[in-house]
Amino acid sequence: MSCYSLHSGRITSNFDADSPCGIPNSTYPHVQCCVNGDYCMSNGICHYYNNNSDKGYYTADCTDPTLQDPACMTRCGAQPGAIIDYDENTGLWACCTYTSDGKANCSNLSDEKFPAPAPSKLVTIQYLPPTGTPEYATPTDVMSTPLVNSTSNQIGAGAAAGIGVGVGVGVFLLATTAAFFYFRRRRSSQHSGAASKTWTESVAEVQQPQTVFRYELGKPEPRPQELA
């Protein structure tokens, strides 16, 4: 699959140097491209890093020959190249200017600026080996759709759902434990009350005075008196 770029106002094909950053699908027929040996980052940015400590960023190319697809970026299209730099003062990315011999001069940034996360906040999407076919992961929307405000601190929907389920289970277990101890304590109190009542009644029966009739010899038994 060929990749296309916009430099000095002209669209050119970079199929010899570029590789797609992902696998197109029916929903997203076009994806961004970066140079072989570099890293595809989020927000339509590519990252290059050489062994001689030469590193930096540039805008991604695209598989759409017209560059009209939403996945395509036409940043720095007026410049001879696509090298960009992050401006710490403004928090924006800017296209670097070029010298007469075609070298990027990022100490003199152009007026073309665009918002995107700082370099440390960019997300790595795909590594493109210098030779051979890249080992792509399963197709994802992030490969073809730039994430303008993406950061590494965001939580996916699956993780949020997992957290919600965990909280629900924890609340259920807590309520079940509380109910268990409540009914256990209540039954214990009822049993203690019943035992105390039985013991009290037993003591009362033992201590209840009984009437004792004594009869002395030589004395007549008392008889009930008749009413006058």
Automatic annotation (TrEMBL):
Subcellular localization, as worded in the UniProt entry: Membrane
Membrane-spanning intervals of the chain: 159-183
One term under GO cellular component: membrane
Lineage, top ranks: Eukaryota, Fungi, Dikarya, Ascomycota, Pezizomycotina
Alphabetical UniProt keywords: Membrane, Transmembrane, Transmembrane helix
Name of the protein: Mid2 domain-containing protein
Domain of life: Eukaryota
Its membrane topology: Multi-pass membrane protein
